[in-house]
Amino acid sequence: DQQVKQNSPSLSVQEGRISILNCDYTNSMFDYFLWYKKYPAEGPTFLISISSIKDKNEDGRFTVFLNKSAKHLSLHIVPSQPGDSAVYFCAVYSGGGADGLTFGKGTHLIIQP
Amino acid sequence: DAGVTQSPTHLIKTRGQHVTLRCSPISGHKSVSWYQQVLGQGPQFIFQYYEKEERGRGNFPDRFSARQFPNYSSELNVNALLLGDSALYLCASSLDSAWPQHFGDGTRLSIL
Question: Are strands B5-7 and A102-103 parallel, antiparallel or unpaired?
Fold first, then answer.
């Protein structure tokens, strides 16, 4: 049973516009929510995170929103750039740490020129 | 500064063999975690080690084992390889047992 779901396998966005990537989770006990970005032949790179006690965190072009009542997480990238084309993984973490990160299946973001 | 390094980058084995994958964490990081990523899926947690002790284990069979050395590097061992073990194996390190975890580029293991 998937605890973290990314229901869009791919997303195509025009350069300069906003990219919105979505993630749903099932367990309200998760403490932290993270986004990772992965290029082919490279490991995932940490992008941004948010604690369960917050509803928004911003870092430059990247903003993560957390809606705890809906168990929904989203990543906004604005403006989208060609280098943003990659696979984006949503991941969750419980403060105890012993279970590692639980990842979604990823969304392939394609930025069109 | 060097990131997380993994070796080898690619490996081909046959069913029934065993394999050892290696990982060197970022300097100063004491925690190492291992993940398996099969095609079309996100990484799946296998083990976490912190200060040379196993801190967590995912839902993997006993054929999978790992250890962490005094210099905080780590090995992942897989015995009696099956075709389904073909995957990208990722190592991640962090300062302590928490996040954020920094990933290496992985070892691509192919089982024939």
Answer: unpaired
- Helices marked H in A37-97 — which ranges? none
**How close A47 gets to chain B, by Cα (Å)?**
10
Give the three-state DSSP class for A43: coil
Beta carbons of A103 and B90 less than 8 Å apart: no
Q: Give which of A3, A5, A8 is closest to A19, Cα–Cα.
A: A8
Q: Across the interface, which of B33, B102, B104 has its CB nearest the CB of A100? A: B33
Phi-psi group of A88: left, alpha or beta (phi > 0 → left; psi -120 to 50 → alpha; rest → beta)? beta
CB B105 within 8 A of CB A42: yes
* Residues of chain A contacting B42 with CB distance shorter than 8 Å: 4, 89, 91, 103-106
Q: Output the six-digit token pair for B67.
A: 């250890």
Q: How many CA atoms lie within 13 A of A36 on its CB side?
A: 27
B103: tokens are 């990933």
B58–A contact, CB cutoff 8 A: yes
HSE (side-chain half, CA atoms, 13 Å) at A72:
8
pLDDT tens readout for residues A20-43: 999 999 988 888 999 999 999 899
Consecutive sets of 10 residues in chain A, 113 residues long: mean pLDDT of each? 90 98 91 94 94 95 97 97 97 76 96 95
Contact between residue A97 and residue A73 where contact means Cβ atoms under 8 Å apart: no
